[in-house]
Amino acid sequence: EKLFHNRDHSDMQSLTSRQAAVITDKYTAELFLSRYGFMEPVNWEEIQPSESQAFLSALKEFQKVSGLPVTGVLDEATKVAMNKPRCGVPDKETVSSLAIPMTPSEEVQRR
Amino acid sequence: KRHLAALLSKSRPKRDLGENGYMAFSKKELKWRLIGEGYSSQLTIEEQRYILKLAFRMWSEVSPLEFVEDTRSPLEDVDIKLGFGTGRHLGCNQRFDGTGQEFAHAWFLGDIHFDDDEHFTGPNAGSGISLLKVAVHEIGHVLGLPHIYRPGSIMQPNYLPHESGFEMDWMDRKAIQRLYGACKGQFNTVFDWIRKEKTPYGETVIRFNTYFMRDGWYWLYENRNNRTRYGDPVPLQIGWRGIPVDGVDAHVHVWSRKRDAVYFFKGTQFWRYDSKNDVVFTQDPEGHHYPRLISEAFPGVSSPIDTAFYDRRDSHIYFFKNTLVYAFDIEANSLAKGFPKNIRDVFPPVVNGDHPDGNIDAAYFSYTHNAIFLLKGTRFWQVVGSRDRWRWLFLPHNGLLPHKEVDQHWFDICNVHPTTLKL
After folding, report:
1. Which of B266, B362, B379 is nearest to B320 (CA)?
2. Residue A96 pLDDT grade (very low, low, confident, very high; cuts 50, 70, 90)
3. Among partner residues B106, B125, B159, which is closest to A10 by beta-carbon distance?
Protein backbone atom coordinates (compact mmCIF):
# COMPACT_ATOMS: atom_id res chain seq x y z
CA GLU A 1 0.00 0.00 0.00
CA LYS A 2 1.30 3.43 -0.83
CA LEU A 3 2.00 5.40 2.34
CA PHE A 4 -0.64 7.97 3.34
CA HIS A 5 -1.75 9.76 6.48
CA ASN A 6 -4.71 11.82 5.30
CA ARG A 7 -8.09 10.14 5.20
CA ASP A 8 -8.50 11.03 1.52
CA HIS A 9 -5.00 9.79 0.61
CA SER A 10 -4.25 13.28 -0.68
CA ASP A 11 -0.80 13.17 0.85
CA MET A 12 0.03 9.84 -0.68
CA GLN A 13 3.77 9.56 -1.18
CA SER A 14 4.96 7.65 -4.16
CA LEU A 15 7.29 4.95 -2.97
CA THR A 16 8.75 4.67 -6.41
CA SER A 17 10.85 7.32 -8.02
CA ARG A 18 8.94 7.00 -11.30
CA GLN A 19 8.76 10.52 -12.58
CA ALA A 20 8.06 11.50 -16.17
CA ALA A 21 11.23 12.76 -17.83
CA VAL A 22 11.03 16.54 -17.67
CA ILE A 23 11.20 18.35 -20.99
CA THR A 24 14.11 20.74 -20.77
CA ASP A 25 15.92 20.77 -24.10
CA LYS A 26 15.51 20.42 -27.83
CA TYR A 27 15.98 16.68 -27.73
CA THR A 28 13.20 16.00 -25.19
CA ALA A 29 11.00 18.61 -26.86
CA GLU A 30 11.43 16.87 -30.19
CA LEU A 31 10.39 13.58 -28.61
CA PHE A 32 7.31 15.31 -27.19
CA LEU A 33 6.36 16.92 -30.50
CA SER A 34 6.75 13.71 -32.47
CA ARG A 35 4.92 11.67 -29.86
CA TYR A 36 1.87 13.93 -29.98
CA GLY A 37 1.75 14.16 -33.73
CA PHE A 38 3.16 17.60 -34.37
CA MET A 39 5.99 16.07 -36.40
CA GLU A 40 7.03 12.71 -37.72
CA PRO A 41 9.46 10.74 -35.56
CA VAL A 42 13.00 11.93 -36.13
CA ASN A 43 15.79 9.72 -37.58
CA TRP A 44 18.60 10.89 -35.35
CA GLU A 45 21.50 9.46 -37.37
CA GLU A 46 20.97 11.73 -40.32
CA ILE A 47 19.75 15.19 -39.28
CA GLN A 48 18.85 17.15 -42.38
CA PRO A 49 18.57 20.95 -42.33
CA SER A 50 14.95 20.51 -43.40
CA GLU A 51 14.31 18.46 -40.21
CA SER A 52 15.35 21.32 -37.93
CA GLN A 53 12.89 23.35 -40.02
CA ALA A 54 10.31 20.67 -39.27
CA PHE A 55 11.07 21.03 -35.56
CA LEU A 56 10.65 24.80 -35.78
CA SER A 57 7.32 24.65 -37.51
CA ALA A 58 6.11 21.89 -35.15
CA LEU A 59 7.16 24.02 -32.16
CA LYS A 60 5.31 27.01 -33.53
CA GLU A 61 2.20 24.97 -34.10
CA PHE A 62 2.32 23.61 -30.57
CA GLN A 63 2.71 27.15 -29.22
CA LYS A 64 -0.21 28.29 -31.30
CA VAL A 65 -2.66 25.58 -30.22
CA SER A 66 -1.54 25.95 -26.62
CA GLY A 67 -2.34 29.63 -26.67
CA LEU A 68 1.29 30.64 -26.19
CA PRO A 69 3.15 33.43 -28.00
CA VAL A 70 4.32 31.86 -31.26
CA THR A 71 8.03 32.57 -30.89
CA GLY A 72 9.51 29.42 -32.39
CA VAL A 73 11.81 29.45 -29.41
CA LEU A 74 11.79 26.70 -26.80
CA ASP A 75 11.20 29.22 -24.02
CA GLU A 76 10.19 28.60 -20.44
CA ALA A 77 6.46 29.02 -21.06
CA THR A 78 6.60 26.39 -23.78
CA LYS A 79 8.49 23.98 -21.57
CA VAL A 80 5.96 24.49 -18.77
CA ALA A 81 3.12 23.74 -21.22
CA MET A 82 4.88 20.59 -22.44
CA ASN A 83 5.33 19.35 -18.89
CA LYS A 84 1.70 19.75 -17.84
CA PRO A 85 -0.37 16.67 -17.08
CA ARG A 86 -2.09 15.61 -20.28
CA CYS A 87 -3.80 12.85 -22.22
CA GLY A 88 -1.50 10.43 -24.02
CA VAL A 89 -3.56 10.40 -27.24
CA PRO A 90 -1.77 12.37 -29.96
CA ASP A 91 -3.14 15.81 -30.74
CA LYS A 92 -2.79 15.15 -34.38
CA GLU A 93 -3.85 11.99 -36.04
CA THR A 94 -0.90 10.15 -37.42
CA VAL A 95 -1.03 6.79 -39.09
CA SER A 96 0.82 5.27 -36.19
CA SER A 97 -1.87 6.43 -33.74
CA LEU A 98 -4.49 4.43 -35.61
CA ALA A 99 -2.39 1.32 -35.98
CA ILE A 100 -3.27 -1.78 -34.09
CA PRO A 101 -0.34 -2.58 -31.77
CA MET A 102 1.64 -5.15 -33.79
CA THR A 103 5.00 -6.70 -33.18
CA PRO A 104 7.35 -5.95 -36.12
CA SER A 105 7.72 -9.60 -36.96
CA GLU A 106 4.01 -9.85 -37.67
CA GLU A 107 4.24 -6.99 -40.14
CA VAL A 108 7.06 -8.76 -42.04
CA GLN A 109 5.10 -11.96 -42.28
CA ARG A 110 2.06 -10.12 -43.59
CA ARG A 111 3.94 -8.62 -46.51
CA LYS B 1 -7.54 3.46 -43.58
CA ARG B 2 -9.57 1.36 -46.02
CA HIS B 3 -7.28 -1.58 -45.43
CA LEU B 4 -7.50 -1.01 -41.72
CA ALA B 5 -11.30 -0.82 -41.84
CA ALA B 6 -11.45 -4.10 -43.72
CA LEU B 7 -9.09 -5.63 -41.16
CA LEU B 8 -11.23 -4.41 -38.30
CA SER B 9 -14.49 -5.44 -39.84
CA LYS B 10 -13.20 -8.99 -39.98
CA SER B 11 -12.18 -9.06 -36.35
CA ARG B 12 -14.97 -7.00 -34.71
CA PRO B 13 -17.95 -6.63 -36.96
CA LYS B 14 -19.83 -4.27 -34.71
CA ARG B 15 -17.39 -1.49 -35.24
CA ASP B 16 -16.95 0.69 -38.31
CA LEU B 17 -15.09 3.87 -38.92
CA GLY B 18 -18.36 5.85 -39.08
CA GLU B 19 -19.68 7.48 -42.17
CA ASN B 20 -19.70 10.98 -40.79
CA GLY B 21 -16.16 11.31 -39.66
CA TYR B 22 -14.01 9.91 -36.96
CA MET B 23 -14.48 6.57 -35.34
CA ALA B 24 -17.95 5.50 -34.23
CA PHE B 25 -19.75 2.55 -32.78
CA SER B 26 -22.63 1.28 -34.85
CA LYS B 27 -24.84 0.34 -31.92
CA LYS B 28 -26.48 2.39 -29.22
CA GLU B 29 -25.89 0.25 -26.13
CA LEU B 30 -22.24 -0.24 -25.24
CA LYS B 31 -20.80 -2.52 -22.55
CA TRP B 32 -17.87 -1.47 -20.42
CA ARG B 33 -15.76 -3.12 -17.72
CA LEU B 34 -13.02 -2.08 -15.31
CA ILE B 35 -10.55 -4.92 -15.76
CA GLY B 36 -9.88 -6.91 -12.57
CA GLU B 37 -6.11 -6.86 -12.85
CA GLY B 38 -6.24 -3.14 -13.62
CA TYR B 39 -7.70 -1.69 -10.43
CA SER B 40 -6.13 1.48 -9.09
CA SER B 41 -4.29 1.24 -5.76
CA GLN B 42 -5.40 4.73 -4.75
CA LEU B 43 -9.19 4.52 -4.63
CA THR B 44 -11.46 1.76 -3.42
CA ILE B 45 -12.83 -0.45 -6.17
CA GLU B 46 -16.33 0.83 -5.45
CA GLU B 47 -15.15 4.43 -5.85
CA GLN B 48 -13.44 3.62 -9.13
CA ARG B 49 -16.52 1.84 -10.52
CA TYR B 50 -18.86 4.61 -9.33
CA ILE B 51 -16.75 7.34 -10.95
CA LEU B 52 -16.51 5.44 -14.25
CA LYS B 53 -20.25 4.75 -14.19
CA LEU B 54 -20.87 8.48 -13.71
CA ALA B 55 -18.45 9.35 -16.53
CA PHE B 56 -20.29 7.05 -18.95
CA ARG B 57 -23.63 8.42 -17.76
CA MET B 58 -22.46 11.95 -18.59
CA TRP B 59 -22.01 10.93 -22.21
CA SER B 60 -25.44 9.29 -22.18
CA GLU B 61 -26.99 12.55 -20.99
CA VAL B 62 -25.93 14.31 -24.19
CA SER B 63 -26.14 11.56 -26.81
CA PRO B 64 -28.36 8.63 -27.85
CA LEU B 65 -25.71 6.20 -26.50
CA GLU B 66 -26.34 4.13 -23.40
CA PHE B 67 -23.61 2.43 -21.38
CA VAL B 68 -23.94 -0.55 -19.13
CA GLU B 69 -21.27 -2.05 -16.89
CA ASP B 70 -20.84 -5.71 -17.79
CA THR B 71 -18.77 -7.80 -15.39
CA ARG B 72 -19.87 -11.20 -16.73
CA SER B 73 -19.81 -11.47 -20.53
CA PRO B 74 -16.75 -12.85 -22.29
CA LEU B 75 -14.20 -10.06 -22.66
CA GLU B 76 -14.61 -10.25 -26.41
CA ASP B 77 -18.14 -8.95 -26.06
CA VAL B 78 -17.21 -5.98 -23.91
CA ASP B 79 -16.91 -2.83 -26.04
CA ILE B 80 -14.85 -0.64 -23.72
CA LYS B 81 -12.28 -2.02 -21.28
CA LEU B 82 -10.66 0.24 -18.72
CA GLY B 83 -7.71 -0.37 -16.42
CA PHE B 84 -5.00 1.27 -14.32
CA GLY B 85 -1.31 0.52 -14.68
CA THR B 86 2.14 2.04 -14.28
CA GLY B 87 5.10 2.00 -16.67
CA ARG B 88 4.64 -1.00 -18.95
CA HIS B 89 1.02 -2.01 -18.35
CA LEU B 90 -1.82 -4.27 -19.47
CA GLY B 91 0.00 -5.49 -22.57
CA CYS B 92 -0.04 -1.96 -23.99
CA ASN B 93 2.84 -0.89 -26.21
CA GLN B 94 2.79 2.70 -24.93
CA ARG B 95 4.57 2.79 -21.58
CA PHE B 96 3.36 5.25 -19.00
CA ASP B 97 5.92 7.86 -17.98
CA GLY B 98 5.50 7.91 -14.18
CA THR B 99 4.17 10.88 -12.27
CA GLY B 100 3.55 13.95 -14.42
CA GLN B 101 2.73 14.51 -18.09
CA GLU B 102 0.78 11.57 -19.55
CA PHE B 103 -1.99 10.54 -17.13
CA ALA B 104 -4.07 8.30 -19.45
CA HIS B 105 -4.62 7.24 -23.02
CA ALA B 106 -7.25 5.52 -25.09
CA TRP B 107 -7.05 3.15 -28.02
CA PHE B 108 -9.62 3.17 -30.73
CA LEU B 109 -10.33 -0.48 -30.08
CA GLY B 110 -12.04 0.72 -26.94
CA ASP B 111 -9.33 0.30 -24.34
CA ILE B 112 -8.68 3.07 -21.84
CA HIS B 113 -5.60 3.01 -19.58
CA PHE B 114 -4.96 5.26 -16.60
CA ASP B 115 -1.46 5.90 -15.26
CA ASP B 116 -1.64 4.84 -11.62
CA ASP B 117 1.48 6.86 -10.84
CA GLU B 118 -0.72 9.93 -11.09
CA HIS B 119 -2.65 10.96 -8.01
CA PHE B 120 -6.23 10.30 -9.10
CA THR B 121 -8.95 11.60 -6.81
CA GLY B 122 -12.75 11.55 -6.56
CA PRO B 123 -15.01 14.17 -8.11
CA ASN B 124 -14.96 16.66 -5.20
CA ALA B 125 -11.53 16.13 -3.71
CA GLY B 126 -10.24 19.50 -4.81
CA SER B 127 -6.72 18.17 -5.21
CA GLY B 128 -4.89 15.69 -7.41
CA ILE B 129 -6.25 14.75 -10.84
CA SER B 130 -9.99 14.17 -11.06
CA LEU B 131 -10.54 10.63 -12.30
CA LEU B 132 -14.04 11.65 -13.40
CA LYS B 133 -12.72 14.36 -15.67
CA VAL B 134 -10.01 12.18 -17.17
CA ALA B 135 -12.44 9.30 -17.69
CA VAL B 136 -14.95 11.53 -19.51
CA HIS B 137 -12.15 12.78 -21.74
CA GLU B 138 -10.81 9.32 -22.61
CA ILE B 139 -14.32 7.95 -23.24
CA GLY B 140 -14.74 10.85 -25.66
CA HIS B 141 -11.74 9.50 -27.58
CA VAL B 142 -13.11 5.96 -27.66
CA LEU B 143 -16.38 7.34 -29.01
CA GLY B 144 -14.44 9.03 -31.78
CA LEU B 145 -13.70 12.55 -30.69
CA PRO B 146 -10.22 13.99 -31.26
CA HIS B 147 -8.53 16.60 -29.09
CA ILE B 148 -10.32 19.92 -29.26
CA TYR B 149 -8.34 23.04 -28.43
CA ARG B 150 -11.32 25.08 -27.32
CA PRO B 151 -11.28 26.58 -23.79
CA GLY B 152 -13.99 24.82 -21.86
CA SER B 153 -13.98 21.69 -23.99
CA ILE B 154 -13.66 18.39 -22.15
CA MET B 155 -11.54 17.21 -25.07
CA GLN B 156 -8.65 19.59 -24.45
CA PRO B 157 -5.42 17.53 -24.27
CA ASN B 158 -4.08 19.23 -21.15
CA TYR B 159 -5.59 18.66 -17.74
CA LEU B 160 -7.02 21.78 -16.15
CA PRO B 161 -7.14 21.70 -12.34
CA HIS B 162 -10.55 21.16 -10.80
CA GLU B 163 -13.25 23.42 -12.13
CA SER B 164 -16.25 23.47 -9.82
CA GLY B 165 -18.82 23.15 -12.56
CA PHE B 166 -17.30 20.36 -14.62
CA GLU B 167 -19.91 19.65 -17.32
CA MET B 168 -19.99 19.17 -21.06
CA ASP B 169 -20.55 22.44 -22.87
CA TRP B 170 -22.71 23.12 -25.93
CA MET B 171 -19.94 22.54 -28.47
CA ASP B 172 -18.89 19.21 -26.97
CA ARG B 173 -22.53 18.10 -27.14
CA LYS B 174 -22.76 19.07 -30.79
CA ALA B 175 -19.49 17.32 -31.53
CA ILE B 176 -20.69 13.97 -30.16
CA GLN B 177 -24.12 14.46 -31.75
CA ARG B 178 -22.46 15.01 -35.11
CA LEU B 179 -21.24 11.42 -34.79
CA TYR B 180 -24.26 9.72 -33.21
CA GLY B 181 -27.19 12.02 -33.89
CA ALA B 182 -29.40 13.95 -31.49
CA CYS B 183 -31.60 12.41 -28.80
CA LYS B 184 -35.06 11.61 -30.05
CA GLY B 185 -38.07 10.01 -28.45
CA GLN B 186 -41.71 10.28 -27.39
CA PHE B 187 -42.87 12.02 -24.26
CA ASN B 188 -45.84 11.20 -22.01
CA THR B 189 -46.37 14.82 -21.11
CA VAL B 190 -44.71 18.24 -21.13
CA PHE B 191 -45.73 21.09 -18.84
CA ASP B 192 -44.68 24.25 -17.07
CA TRP B 193 -44.95 23.89 -13.31
CA ILE B 194 -45.93 27.22 -11.70
CA ARG B 195 -44.90 28.07 -8.16
CA LYS B 196 -45.60 31.08 -6.02
CA GLU B 197 -42.68 32.08 -3.85
CA LYS B 198 -42.10 34.85 -1.36
CA THR B 199 -39.10 37.13 -1.79
CA PRO B 200 -37.07 38.16 1.25
CA TYR B 201 -39.19 41.33 1.18
CA GLY B 202 -42.38 39.34 1.52
CA GLU B 203 -43.51 39.91 -2.06
CA THR B 204 -45.09 37.01 -3.89
CA VAL B 205 -43.40 36.16 -7.16
CA ILE B 206 -44.47 33.54 -9.64
CA ARG B 207 -41.86 31.21 -11.07
CA PHE B 208 -42.15 28.32 -13.47
CA ASN B 209 -40.00 25.46 -14.70
CA THR B 210 -40.52 23.30 -17.76
CA TYR B 211 -40.68 19.51 -17.34
CA PHE B 212 -40.60 16.65 -19.82
CA MET B 213 -41.83 13.27 -18.67
CA ARG B 214 -41.17 9.93 -20.31
CA ASP B 215 -42.26 6.68 -18.63
CA GLY B 216 -40.94 6.67 -15.08
CA TRP B 217 -38.41 9.49 -15.37
CA TYR B 218 -38.37 13.18 -16.05
CA TRP B 219 -36.15 16.07 -17.05
CA LEU B 220 -36.24 19.68 -15.93
CA TYR B 221 -35.59 21.73 -19.07
CA GLU B 222 -33.65 24.97 -18.60
CA ASN B 223 -35.08 27.19 -21.34
CA ARG B 224 -32.44 29.83 -20.67
CA ASN B 225 -29.62 27.39 -21.37
CA ASN B 226 -31.33 25.35 -24.09
CA ARG B 227 -30.58 22.07 -22.33
CA THR B 228 -31.84 19.83 -19.54
CA ARG B 229 -30.65 20.27 -15.98
CA TYR B 230 -27.27 18.72 -15.31
CA GLY B 231 -27.70 15.20 -13.98
CA ASP B 232 -31.22 14.62 -15.37
CA PRO B 233 -33.16 12.41 -16.03
CA VAL B 234 -34.35 11.54 -12.55
CA PRO B 235 -36.88 8.90 -11.46
CA LEU B 236 -40.42 10.31 -11.09
CA GLN B 237 -40.82 9.25 -7.49
CA ILE B 238 -37.89 11.40 -6.49
CA GLY B 239 -39.38 14.67 -7.73
CA TRP B 240 -43.15 14.10 -7.90
CA ARG B 241 -44.23 12.24 -4.83
CA GLY B 242 -47.41 10.27 -5.09
CA ILE B 243 -48.03 10.21 -8.82
CA PRO B 244 -47.78 6.84 -10.60
CA VAL B 245 -44.11 5.83 -10.67
CA ASP B 246 -44.31 4.43 -14.20
CA GLY B 247 -45.54 7.67 -15.73
CA VAL B 248 -48.66 9.71 -16.40
CA ASP B 249 -50.83 10.54 -19.41
CA ALA B 250 -51.27 14.23 -18.77
CA HIS B 251 -50.61 17.19 -16.48
CA VAL B 252 -53.22 19.95 -16.35
CA HIS B 253 -52.95 23.24 -14.47
CA VAL B 254 -56.31 24.94 -14.09
CA TRP B 255 -55.30 28.53 -13.37
CA SER B 256 -57.85 31.34 -13.43
CA ARG B 257 -58.96 34.21 -11.25
CA LYS B 258 -60.97 31.80 -9.10
CA ARG B 259 -59.05 28.53 -9.46
CA ASP B 260 -55.50 27.29 -9.11
CA ALA B 261 -55.31 23.50 -9.23
CA VAL B 262 -52.76 21.08 -10.67
CA TYR B 263 -53.85 17.61 -11.81
CA PHE B 264 -52.09 14.51 -13.10
CA PHE B 265 -54.04 11.99 -15.17
CA LYS B 266 -53.28 8.31 -15.64
CA GLY B 267 -55.63 5.67 -17.04
CA THR B 268 -59.15 6.21 -15.67
CA GLN B 269 -57.95 8.14 -12.60
CA PHE B 270 -56.52 11.52 -11.73
CA TRP B 271 -54.64 13.08 -8.82
CA ARG B 272 -54.48 16.64 -7.57
CA TYR B 273 -51.01 17.91 -6.79
CA ASP B 274 -50.18 20.09 -3.78
CA SER B 275 -47.55 22.40 -5.30
CA LYS B 276 -46.80 23.98 -1.98
CA ASN B 277 -45.88 20.76 -0.26
CA ASP B 278 -44.70 19.04 -3.41
CA VAL B 279 -46.78 15.91 -2.97
CA VAL B 280 -50.17 14.70 -4.22
CA PHE B 281 -53.21 15.48 -2.06
CA THR B 282 -54.78 12.52 -0.34
CA GLN B 283 -57.61 14.91 0.48
CA ASP B 284 -57.77 18.40 -1.05
CA PRO B 285 -59.12 21.52 0.62
CA GLU B 286 -62.52 20.86 -1.00
CA GLY B 287 -62.65 17.48 0.73
CA HIS B 288 -62.08 15.30 -2.34
CA HIS B 289 -60.14 12.13 -1.77
CA TYR B 290 -57.58 11.15 -4.41
CA PRO B 291 -57.12 9.40 -6.75
CA ARG B 292 -60.54 10.06 -8.24
CA LEU B 293 -62.20 8.69 -11.35
CA ILE B 294 -61.99 10.98 -14.39
CA SER B 295 -65.58 10.13 -15.29
CA GLU B 296 -66.68 11.30 -11.82
CA ALA B 297 -65.14 14.79 -12.06
CA PHE B 298 -65.25 15.29 -15.83
CA PRO B 299 -68.56 13.81 -17.02
CA GLY B 300 -68.60 13.06 -20.72
CA VAL B 301 -64.86 12.65 -21.04
CA SER B 302 -63.88 9.14 -22.11
CA SER B 303 -60.75 7.75 -20.41
CA PRO B 304 -58.03 6.72 -20.57
CA ILE B 305 -56.96 9.83 -22.40
CA ASP B 306 -53.92 10.48 -24.60
CA THR B 307 -53.20 13.87 -23.08
CA ALA B 308 -54.82 17.15 -22.03
CA PHE B 309 -54.11 20.80 -21.41
CA TYR B 310 -55.91 23.82 -19.93
CA ASP B 311 -56.56 26.72 -22.28
CA ARG B 312 -56.62 29.95 -20.27
CA ARG B 313 -58.19 31.76 -23.22
CA ASP B 314 -61.55 30.04 -22.81
CA SER B 315 -61.09 28.30 -19.42
CA HIS B 316 -61.62 24.90 -21.04
CA ILE B 317 -59.62 21.72 -20.49
CA TYR B 318 -58.99 20.05 -23.81
CA PHE B 319 -58.79 16.27 -23.47
CA PHE B 320 -57.39 14.28 -26.40
CA LYS B 321 -58.24 10.65 -27.08
CA ASN B 322 -57.49 8.96 -30.40
CA THR B 323 -58.94 11.29 -33.10
CA LEU B 324 -61.37 13.04 -30.74
CA VAL B 325 -61.07 16.24 -28.67
CA TYR B 326 -63.26 16.78 -25.59
CA ALA B 327 -63.44 20.43 -24.53
CA PHE B 328 -64.59 20.54 -20.90
CA ASP B 329 -66.06 23.78 -19.55
CA ILE B 330 -64.71 24.06 -16.00
CA GLU B 331 -67.26 26.64 -14.85
CA ALA B 332 -70.25 24.70 -16.25
CA ASN B 333 -68.69 21.41 -15.16
CA SER B 334 -69.75 19.84 -18.46
CA LEU B 335 -68.49 19.21 -21.98
CA ALA B 336 -68.60 22.36 -24.09
CA LYS B 337 -71.37 22.50 -26.66
CA GLY B 338 -70.79 20.32 -29.71
CA PHE B 339 -67.95 18.28 -28.21
CA PRO B 340 -66.40 15.79 -28.65
CA LYS B 341 -65.18 16.81 -32.11
CA ASN B 342 -62.62 15.45 -34.52
CA ILE B 343 -59.19 16.87 -33.83
CA ARG B 344 -58.96 18.22 -37.39
CA ASP B 345 -62.07 20.31 -36.78
CA VAL B 346 -60.73 21.79 -33.54
CA PHE B 347 -57.09 22.12 -34.65
CA PRO B 348 -57.15 22.35 -38.46
CA PRO B 349 -53.90 22.03 -40.44
CA VAL B 350 -52.53 25.27 -41.90
CA VAL B 351 -50.80 23.19 -44.57
CA ASN B 352 -52.90 20.34 -45.88
CA GLY B 353 -51.48 16.96 -45.11
CA ASP B 354 -49.27 18.28 -42.32
CA HIS B 355 -51.29 17.18 -39.24
CA PRO B 356 -50.81 14.65 -36.42
CA ASP B 357 -54.25 13.15 -37.04
CA GLY B 358 -54.93 12.18 -33.43
CA ASN B 359 -53.21 9.90 -30.88
CA ILE B 360 -51.00 12.75 -29.80
CA ASP B 361 -48.55 12.31 -26.93
CA ALA B 362 -48.61 15.70 -25.28
CA ALA B 363 -50.41 19.05 -25.46
CA TYR B 364 -48.27 21.75 -23.88
CA PHE B 365 -48.86 25.44 -23.24
CA SER B 366 -45.42 27.04 -22.91
CA TYR B 367 -45.09 30.23 -20.92
CA THR B 368 -41.63 30.64 -22.40
CA HIS B 369 -42.98 30.74 -25.97
CA ASN B 370 -46.52 31.86 -25.05
CA ALA B 371 -47.74 29.18 -27.41
CA ILE B 372 -49.49 25.81 -27.42
CA PHE B 373 -47.67 22.82 -28.87
CA LEU B 374 -49.05 19.40 -29.82
CA LEU B 375 -46.37 16.70 -29.64
CA LYS B 376 -46.50 13.33 -31.33
CA GLY B 377 -43.52 10.99 -31.69
CA THR B 378 -40.47 13.08 -32.48
CA ARG B 379 -42.48 15.95 -33.96
CA PHE B 380 -44.47 18.92 -32.73
CA TRP B 381 -47.04 21.27 -34.24
CA GLN B 382 -47.39 24.81 -32.89
CA VAL B 383 -50.92 26.14 -32.60
CA VAL B 384 -51.54 29.46 -34.36
CA GLY B 385 -51.59 32.22 -31.76
CA SER B 386 -53.62 35.41 -31.72
CA ARG B 387 -50.59 37.44 -32.73
CA ASP B 388 -50.08 35.24 -35.77
CA ARG B 389 -53.65 35.74 -36.74
CA TRP B 390 -53.41 39.52 -36.44
CA ARG B 391 -50.57 39.40 -38.90
CA TRP B 392 -51.92 36.71 -41.27
CA LEU B 393 -55.70 36.97 -41.29
CA PHE B 394 -56.07 33.83 -43.41
CA LEU B 395 -54.77 31.60 -40.59
CA PRO B 396 -57.59 29.51 -39.06
CA HIS B 397 -58.43 29.66 -35.33
CA ASN B 398 -56.28 27.09 -33.48
CA GLY B 399 -54.65 26.13 -36.80
CA LEU B 400 -51.60 23.89 -36.63
CA LEU B 401 -48.46 25.33 -38.21
CA PRO B 402 -46.26 22.92 -40.17
CA HIS B 403 -44.50 20.41 -37.96
CA LYS B 404 -40.92 20.61 -36.68
CA GLU B 405 -38.64 18.15 -34.90
CA VAL B 406 -38.83 18.20 -31.10
CA ASP B 407 -35.07 17.72 -30.72
CA GLN B 408 -34.41 20.83 -32.82
CA HIS B 409 -36.45 22.93 -30.41
CA TRP B 410 -35.77 21.38 -27.02
CA PHE B 411 -32.20 20.07 -26.93
CA ASP B 412 -30.39 17.11 -25.35
CA ILE B 413 -33.33 15.38 -23.66
CA CYS B 414 -31.52 12.08 -23.56
CA ASN B 415 -32.14 8.74 -21.95
CA VAL B 416 -29.58 7.05 -19.78
CA HIS B 417 -29.27 3.33 -19.18
CA PRO B 418 -31.71 2.26 -16.43
CA THR B 419 -28.81 0.90 -14.38
CA THR B 420 -27.40 4.42 -14.12
CA LEU B 421 -30.70 6.20 -13.47
CA LYS B 422 -30.16 6.50 -9.77
CA LEU B 423 -26.61 7.81 -9.85
Report:
1. B362
2. very low
3. B125
